[in-house]
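To assess whether the prediction recovers the assembly geometry, we first specified each molecular entity separately, as shown.
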Amino acid sequence: MMSLRLQLGIIFIMLVVAGSIVHFLRRKRIDFRYALAWLFVDIIIIVMAIFPQAMVGLSDILGVASPVNMVLFVGLCLALVVIFSLSMSVSRLADKVRKLSQEIAIIRKDMFDGDNRVREEIKGNGGEAE
Amino acid sequence: MKKLVIIPAFNEEGNLEKTIRDIKENAPAFDYVIINDCSTDGTLAMCRRHGFSYLNLPVNLGIGGAVQTGYRYAYYHGYDIAVQFDGDGQHSASYLPEMAKQMEETESDMVIGSRFITKEGFQSSSLRRVGIRYFTLLIRILTGKKITDPTSGMRMINRKLMEKFTEEYPKDYPEPESVVTILSEKHRVTEMPVIMHERGEGNSSISLRNGVYYMVKVSFAMVIARMKR
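The predicted structure of the complete assembly is given in tokenized form:
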């Protein structure tokens, strides 16, 4: 079982983390969608620390020796999910930056060339013949 | 028929002037545009000084993103044909009219300039040739088609592929992967024998250090490209 000291320690740290997330949310340093993911992880860990008994059954099923390790393992898995979703976000952002950079380069050249016609970038109508 | 030569350039100050002269003299029916991908040498200054036609990328996008910029430009400006052409002196513009002709006659969507049909001219190092042959084999396994020079940077495409590549094009080492993609979609790809030269100044984007990453990344990307459809 988990010692009371460890339980309180985990809960305290997770509450500090939750407070920080809310703090950054209020200062608009993090988007809601990412803040929610992290808060979810945070809350799961708090719940597991409050009810370690609930972990015992799960530990047995998965063959994890102690509930403490179970808490760490679940926390790690959730963190990995969040990190992977960040990789996907970064990839999407990179695609957007790429497209924007290309558009900027083209607009600049068109302006330089004195070509002010707006090109509708609708599929199938992207390159109106000149 | 509006035709555009796309010249991706990263630190090609020493070679560009010759390349542009070559195009103007030997492929006068073609417009050209240089894509300056945040060169750290005097490439941009030289383009301005000579009044070259260029697109200046605000952030470095790598070879795939640079070439895609050219396709996007060609597509927006109503070009019928766009051809990727290296700015480092490896390619000869005298082949371009012939490539366009082959494209029309064979109704190809893409024509690749291949070093390995007549096996004349600069044949690349033996290590690289092994890699290229491996890609040829992999393409054959994946698509059943034979492409002798899948890494060639001299590739002509029609408007249909321009639209496609504007939407989606690989970021790095794009050539073999994009060939698999379009072959999987039943587009027509033909090759034309060309003679290439050893590059002028500057270094290849693929060093031995990157070689392993290159082979793994491109192989994986080719398999994924085949699975997509």
